[in-house]
Design goal:
This protein is of the alpha+beta class. The chain folds into 2 domains: 12-207 and 307-426, FAD/NAD(P)-binding domain (3-Layer(bba) Sandwich); 216-298, no CATH class. The chain contains 10 helices and 18 strands. Strands 1, 2, 6, 7, 8, 9 and 18 form a 7-stranded mixed beta sheet that branches. Strands 12-13-11-14 form a 4-stranded antiparallel beta sheet, covered by helices on one side. A 3-stranded antiparallel beta sheet has the order 3-5-4. Helix 1 (26-37) packs parallel to helix 9 (377-397) and helix 9 (377-397) crosses helix 10 (406-415). Bound molecules: flavin-adenine dinucleotide (FAD). Flavin-adenine dinucleotide is lined by residues 22-28, 45-48, 53-55, 58, 60, 62-64, 158-159, 191-194, 196, 213, 303-305, 361-362, 375-378, 380.
């Protein structure tokens, strides 16, 4: 590798805060809202111009899942609040509570058409507590919740380097059109999805390459009811006449990519956009119901399931399924499995190397197979909420993240509507 020496320079401090959240996806938004509602001075820095990350820009417009697959809700708190607010604006649809866990094939078939029931053909399917929503409504709701909570939201800041002083993270240096600026904080939460902050700080992490996805929405489908009843490669959405195509490149791109490598990302952006258009044109000519259909929008962000995962104080793995933890701060089910439940320990959010750095969302400390459950939007919001609450608690007591009173953290999460325990002994896992 060829390198150059950059001259040392003074960097302007843009602002100081108690809690700095880097990345405004579902996890980062929840972290910022939670910390601010707990009274912390919070900055939320996001590289793009809207909140939600993959849940909006990636058009992954399905909250999978808020239940255990057996009819019991396992996710509450901010994820439920976001769902309620979207529903009140007409931007969300989900089965009513009395149907969660129902095994009626007709109901299962109805919800499958919305993308709300997944899993193998041989599974004993049940109605899930999952939510189809309009990403534009989610953007609006997250903006409202973040600003109402008093978060200092700054868009168009790209977190570039962790700033380290005396063994602590002093903050993060950002790059933007304004140049290079620093934000200093007592606690930093890495919610970039790709672990940009903890990687830059030198923390241990695992790294995967993936097949990229590019979901898109289509309008003008004819005879939608009939086509859905016969089986279609798309889902119904809350917007009348509009469907969601969960397009992926597994069969067509030829290779996996590293989502932290700009050259790989460029290759995937160009090829996936071309392939989506080509495949849609082919579908139009082979399926009469699509003859007059048009693409409403293609995700502006590639669908990246996985890149860096923190190797934190605890790495949650597949063997932890069905296991309670004393420091459990969230529970998640599995979007394709029924009764597969994980408790997520607080230690899976904590970096080993720094006393004031947490991870939230899809880059928390779990193994590859467990990531399939913890990466989903509801658990991402929930680990975000836990990280924000823990950060605010640490700031208020002046303690390191590893020293805070975890019982108090769990109590605060419960009071905010969260679910932190699960009756593992009474449920088949
Ligand atoms: C193809 C696919 C299908 C999926 N299907 C579902 C599904 O049906 N249901 C479900 O619940 N989940 C699904 N998921 C998982 C889910 O979408 C994500 O794992 C979840 O949204 C992750 O949220 P996050 O906030 O952790 O990360 P992200 O959504 O990736 O958010 C990260 C945020 O950080 C910002 N950011 C990144 N780097 C920086 C930086 N250096 N500086 C500043 N900002 C930065 C990004 O712009 C983004 O806003 C799917 C994922 C994929 C890829």
């Amino acid at each position: 590798m060829t390198t150059i020496q950059e001259p040392a320079r003074e960097t302007e401090v843009l602002t100081r805060c108690d809690v700095l959240v880097v990345g405004g996806g579902s996890a980062g938004s929840a972290a910022a809202i939670a910390a601010a509602r707990e009274g912390a001075r919070v900055v939320l820095a996001e590289r793009y111009g809207s909140l939600g990350g993959l849940a909006t820009g990636g058009l992954i417009a399905l909250l999978l899942t808020l239940d255990d697959g057996l009819g019991r809700p396992v996710i509450g708190g901010l994820c439920e609040e976001v769902t309620r607010r979207m529903r009140e604006k007409g931007g969300a649809f989900h089965p009513p509570a009395e149907e969660w866990g129902d095994e009626d094939p007709e109901k299962i078939d109805t919800y499958r058409k919305w993308g709300l029931v997944w899993g193998g053909a041989n599974a004993r399917h049940r109605v899930r507590y999952s939510v189809a929503y309009d990403p534009e409504v989610m953007r609006l709701v997250l903006n409202e919740m973040v600003t109402d909570a008093g978060v200092d939201l700054i868009y168009h800041l790209w977190g570039a380097d962790a700033l380290i002083e005396d063994g602590r993270l002093a903050g993060v240096a950002f790059q933007s059109k304004a140049g290079r600026q620093a934000i200093l904080a007592d606690v930093v939460i890495d919610a970039t999805g790709d672990g940009d902050v903890f990687a830059s700080a030198g923390c241990a992490f695992a790294h995967e390459t993936v097949h990229p996805w590019l979901w898109f929405r289509v309008g003008g489908v004819l005879e939608l009811e009939r086509v859905l009843a016969e089986g279609a490669p798309f889902f119904r959405t809350p917007n009348a006449g509009q469907v969601l195509f969960p397009w992926g490149s597994v069969a067509s791109l030829g290779r996996k990519i590293d989502a932290t490598d700009p050259r790989d990302l460029t290759f995937a952006e160009i090829e996936c956009r071309k392939l989506v258009m080509q495949e849609f044109e082919k579908l139009k000519s082979s399926r009469p119901e699509l003859a007059d259909a048009h693409i409403c929008n293609i995700a502006t962000q590639l669908g990246i399931t996985e890149s860096r995962r923190l190797e934190g104080r605890y790495v949650l793995d597949i063997g932890d399924r069905g296991k309670p933890f004393e420091d459990s701060i969230a529970i998640t089910g599995h979007w394709t499995k029924y009764g597969a439940v994980y408790a997520i320990p607080y230690r899976s959010l904590q970096a080993r190397e720094f006393p004031n750095l947490l991870a939230a969302g899809r880059n928390i400390s779990v193994d590859h197979r467990t990531h399939n459950a913890t990466k989903e939007i509801p658990p991402s919001m929930t680990t975000g909420q836990a990280a924000g609450t823990a950060a605010a608690l640490a700031v208020s007591t002046g303690e390191d993240l590893a020293s805070i009173d975890v019982a108090k953290l769990r109590e605060r999460l419960r009071q905010a509507g969260g679910i932190v325990d699960y009756p593992f002994e009474s449920a088949p896992c």
